[in-house]
Amino acid sequence: MPETDAEPTFRSYLAMFRRRGWWVIAGGCIGLAASLAYSVTGPKEYTAAAEILVESTSSADAPGTVPQPVSPTGVQTELTLVTSAPVGRMVMRQLGEIPAVSASEVGQTNVISISAVSLTGAFAARVANAYARAFVTYQQRTASRSLSAAETELKRQVNRAASELATLQKQHAQNSSPQVQAVLNQEAVLKEQLAQMQVSGSENFGGVALVTPAQAPDSPSSPQPVKDGVLGLIGGLLAGIAAAFGREALDDKLASEHSAERVAQVPVVSMVPQVPNWRRRGRPVLVSVADPMSPSAEAYRSLRTSLQFARQEQNLRTVVVTSPAAAEGKTTTLANLGTVFAQAGEQVLVVSCDLRRPRLGEFFGVAEEPGFTSVLLGGMPLEEVLVKAPGTERLWVLPAGPVPSNPAELLNSHRARQIMAALGKRFDLVLIDSPPVLPVTDAVVLAGYADAALMVVRAGQTRRGDLRRAAEKLRQVNANLLGTVLNQVSRQYGYAPGYGYGYKPYLPPQRADLGGNGHGGDGPVDNERGSHGRHHNGTSVSRATSV
User: Fold this and answer.
1) Cys-Cys crosslink for 58: which of 68, 84, 200, 397, Cβ 3.0 to 4.6 Å?
2) 255 and 459 Cβ atoms separated by less than 8 Å
3) Tally of structural domains, the chain
4) In terms of domains, do 483 and 378 share one?
5) What is the separation, in whole angstroms, between the first and last Cα of the chain?
6) Which residues touch 515 (CB under 8 Å, ≥6 apart)?
7) For the packed helices 414-426 and 442-449, what is the interaxial angle rounded to 10 degrees?
8) What is the mean pLDDT of residues 25-31?
9) Sheet holding 481-489, edge to edge
10) C-beta separation of 484 from 266 below 8 A
11) Is 533 inside a domain boundary?
12) Within the chain, what is the greatest distance between any pair of CA atoms?
């Protein structure tokens, strides 16, 4: 359930609780606070209970037989009769009202408990006893009417037998005839049954008895702060869990590496953690330069390694870095990725092709004018708009230039394709910053003639539907989508910090400047560079600096 398009696993549930843990905590706190508030402000209530024993009535059994135990059905019948209308009318005559009570069976016995709740203990006991005595009286009256009816019937049978006997005695002179003897025996049996019924009725009259009268309790039964607090906490936690699952089911945002891979159908090549204080004095900070041993800088170096492996299999010189929507970190990723590639000894150019909202120059303190559009419109030569990135060797910046009114048309022109092809031949790696894929078509145009594309998505913000549509748009122009970068990943979205192993950035040996270009010397490439097998030499450096 944490991922609607995946089979739920124990790990996915743990990830969901990391993301939605505050829902559960908030639900528990609200439930606990509500229960404690009720315990403090709620009225005190007292509960008193009277107990009644249900027995087998002799009148209900055949005379001369042993009474049978009361069945569970019989006890349930008595429970219903406790709150019946006849009993209520009798309570009304005693108390002037009919308070609510509850009747329950005590364990698996024939004992019925009648409980009453009131604001005072004395009145609760009075109500429970009133119901118990009324019920006993009701049962006795019912049994008395049944016994009277049975006695009347037996007396009628005795009288009829006596009348029949008198008639037979007149017809037969002797009382030894068989008919006379049969009637005499029948009369004797009926008289014996009548006598037994009268005796048993006086001994066990009604079938129920009040065994434990209710006593006024000393302490209230409600509220109970400890019990109410525990129940409130449990209820709040369950409500919070239900709310967390509901929110997760309705959330369409990317929540994990696996989700991004399933949606885009390409691997996640890097997971970049959240960068605290990524702005300094209003200017974005290159974390790979400002804090090279941070987890974020290490994530960018991991991304560099992934791209180096891809470049060993493919001839990749120009890579478009884009995102499905705005504010997902594509420009930040591109700037840091270009920096770590340059630190590895490669000649790198970062191009600001977001001609609608250019901001790549902010990361390097470079003005966006003049730039790419200045060359594209034929106003300036390419060599005059390339800027050496301050503080980073072998890194060059091509600003965006003046913002045009028709960016998509300019980027889709033959001149733009020629410029990109020329840049790809002059630098080891060209990283192109483009607008998001979904709002405009610029990124699709650039990806159409670049060697590869890299999609940057933001954990907890990018929607799965947006990523799916963005990947489909790039595939429609046969773009080579290398993978996705899951940006701004926090611990709740599955990011775990590294082992803390120290990192020492590569420092190339210093040498004399080649060609007197004034940009500083470029050292040889270290073993970590994973370009397409070329080694930097004096020729390649001169070519890059002479653009």
Assistant:
1) 200
2) yes
3) 3
4) yes
5) 55
6) 541, 542, 545, 546
7) 50
8) 90
9) 268-273, 481-489, 452-458, 318-322, 429-433, 348-352, 395-398, 387-388
10) yes
11) no
12) 163
